[in-house]
Write a structure and sequence with these properties.
Helices cover 39% and strands 25% of the residues. By secondary structure, the protein is α/β, with parallel strands linked by helices. It has a 6-stranded mixed beta sheet, sandwiched between helices. A 4-stranded antiparallel beta sheet has the order 2-1-4-5, with helices on one face. The longest helix has 20 residues, at 124-143. The protein is globular and about 50 Å long.
Length: 257
């Protein structure tokens, strides 16, 4: 039995229906503090829809979602993010006309202890906060080896570095749970290896819990401790990574006969 204090994310019979289609159907997930957990399955299996449920983009048709023991079912994306869940997206969503460091500072913005007047008139407390946020943003860029690109526009960064910048921005919101939606999509093997090292470092150094969707089985097998496999919105298998990847039903559904 798991200690409830150790469970960062729990879903109970989570489902969503669009018309006659049950895109996510009775999914029960439990992720403990500090785990690096993978969610895999073929295209159209319901993985991103599941993320959208966790982050409040969609409201479930039935079932419940708990984050650190608190029921967050039906809460707004802003409430969920402020409560400690951050995510990246399948398609990169950076502010392309802001610099790398400005993108990370946007993620830090919720914590600026200033009111509007202080910001407009650039009063001392605002200036002090701005300097602190700049330094914190720079420290996060260094974690992802992006500090030398701090003044580059996000649009001008190579694709792999844009992916890493999106993770850095998500980390700026100080989450306890980080959701990564296909972080290695479009990366070459060396970029993927670098990303694997970064994800492992973030988990280890920040003590953060990570749930990721990924199609790159080398990445999944290399860093995920546990997996859940979705197929047509339902759970096909779950458990330790090596056992799940060796499951004949998973191989058939995910890789073909």
């Amino acid at each position: 039995m798991s200690n409830n204090q150790d469970i960062v994310l729990k879903t109970e019979h989570l489902s969503i229906q669009f018309g006659g289609l049950r895109a996510v159907d009775d999914v029960n997930l439990e992720i403990k503090k500090g785990e690096l957990y993978g969610l895999i399955g073929p295209n159209g299996a319901g993985k991103t829809t599941f993320f959208n449920l966790l982050t409040g983009v969609y409201k479930p048709t039935s079932g419940r979602i708990f984050h650190n023991g608190k029921n967050i079912t039906g809460k707004s994306p802003i409430e969920i993010n402020r409560g400690g869940i951050a995510r990246t997206f399948q398609n990169i969503r950076l502010f392309k006309n802001l610099t790398a460091i400005e993108n990370v500072m946007v993620g830090l913005a919720n914590g600026i202890p200033c009111n509007v007047a202080e910001s407009i008139f650039r009063l001392p407390r605002h200036k002090k906060s701005e300097k602190e946020f700049y330094e914190r943003a720079l420290a996060l860029l260094k974690v992802f080896q992006l500090d030398e690109y701090k003044d580059y526009l996000a649009a001008n960064l190579p694709y792999g570095k844009q992916r890493k910048l999106e993770i850095a921005r998500a980390m700026a919101t100080n989450p306890t749970l980080l959701l990564l939606d296909e972080p290695a999509a479009g990366m070459n093997p060396s970029e993927t290896q670098e990303l694997m090292d970064d994800i492992a470092f973030v988990r280890r150094e920040f003590g953060i819990t990570i749930l990721l969707i990924e199609h790159d089985m080398r990445l999944v097998g290399g860093i995920c401790e546990k997996l859940t496999v979705l197929n047509f919105g339902t759970e096909l298998a779950k458990g330790d990574t090596a056992e799940v990847l060796a499951n004949p039903a998973v191989i058939k559904a995910y890789l073909g006969d």
